[in-house]
Amino acid sequence: MASDKRTPVVFCWHMHQPGYRDLKTGAFLFPWVYLHALKDYSDMAAHLEAHPGAKAVVNFAPVLLEQIEIYLVDIERWRHGAGEIGDPLLAALVTEQLPEPGSPGFLDLMDKCLRANEERIIQRFPAYNRLSQLAEFYSSRPEMQRYIASALLSDLLVWYHLGWMGETIRRSNACVQALQEKAQGFSLDDRMALMNVIFETLSGIGPRYRHLAQNGQVELSVSPCTHAMVPLLIDLASARESMPDIALPQHSSYPDGATRARWQLEQAREIFVRFFGIQPTGCWSSEGGLSQQTLNQLEQAGFQWTASGDSVLHNSLARATESGQAPKDGSIHQPYRFGDANITVYFRDDGLSDLIGFTYADWHAEDAVGDLVHHMETIASHAGAHANRVISVILDGENAWEYYPENAFHFLDELYQVLEQHPRLALTTYRDLLAHNASPPQELPAIVAGSWIYGTFSTWIGDPDKNRAWDLLCEAKLHFDRAMDNGSLTAEQKAAATHQLALCEGSDWFWWFGDYNPAQVVNDFEHLYRRHLVNLYEMIGYPAPPSVFQKLSQGSGAPARGGAMRPGHDADTAT
Q: What CA–CA distance (Å, rounded) separates 414 from 408?
């Protein structure tokens, strides 16, 4: 890269799901881990495999990796008659006896089989669309439910999994193609065959990404263990660095949060190494959440780079300008170091990243890629011969694609094809940049704490519902600490409770609370959050307080892309 005069471009695809598994029962309450593995993690690997000249950073949250492992163990145990599949939706696909037609169990599964993008997934397949219409009819006419045939649910289960199938699998797998051609009247053998495809796909995730990493085509990086918001664990008041007037929870701090942050990073590295067999160089701190203390912790944990949204840099540059310490060149297209933290920080070009997340899904693939590359070429021409120039495109590597035709197959294929041989732009990774660029990063006295969403922590704290959730967590942590110290728990019980606490610390629960989000999703995530808290109290032998059982949030909004992604800049303040 040192002799390459092209402008480096880094795509960093972030893969994560929170902890959906109830540790008390072993059941997965939601199926999004295996469905996204089937549709997105497999496709993202396949696109890179098809374009060996392309490079990217792929970031995995350890809580996601652990759940993929559990699915594989569950399926293998079920195959050998030694256990059950812990996900009720996946188990239903291969059960010999489906629930009685019209029963609550039947209707619940029928409803779950409609939780897919209606335009891009359900309506794409005429047979699936007809089943969806039938299911909606029966749901709206309870008096007709006695006439439902069991074949409706059997076919719905097959089509739901076919709909969530990765496009690269759909185009190459003979079993999937045969089932799609059959279209209806699926037998138990058909469902078993589809389960084999699902297992093969899940079992290939780790080896495929390991191989891409060994070839130097992919840099694998990691997030804190359960995708916890590290700056807020360390100091809730760090939210005021970018929003001085933000309302904070009643608890002034998360008890011993710095220790918990270290645990999150140490466990992340341990799980990552077990899954991929290599040490990670970089850490995408959950949601790009950074603070000066977080940078220090990342350095101490052995990470060499991290990244965030460009609003965090803008806020930090503004603070440096006030103190007369701002550099002449404050471009987002270069690496930085802050204060005495010896870790390199890259910044997401929010404009480019959000075009992929929120705009290009409705464009023709060639037009979308042409527009994106044109923007990059313009940036490269303005960057000139700057030794440290780099264009960073960082975004969710899974949720965006269901809004694209055919799971973004054409867009991603065109993107890598154009860029892998581009005369002025060079796809690379952060690890390679650090290894081959001897020029020091730009330095700033300190970073202003914030995330890749608006450069603030407002998505996770400040709203009354979010603050109540933090208070519940802080109270539970105080009881957890007492239980750890009073000698009432065995070493095994302490380990289980610590794992359960980590699930409660995930950032996703706080993301979804508030009226901005859709009611169904808010209800799902609130239920899961409170379930995790109740499990924690049971594990430490303390009765859960009544507040844990009180509803936190309603949700009534309809945000873009269902709220699973958000743009880097607030629409009211974007420039």
A: 10
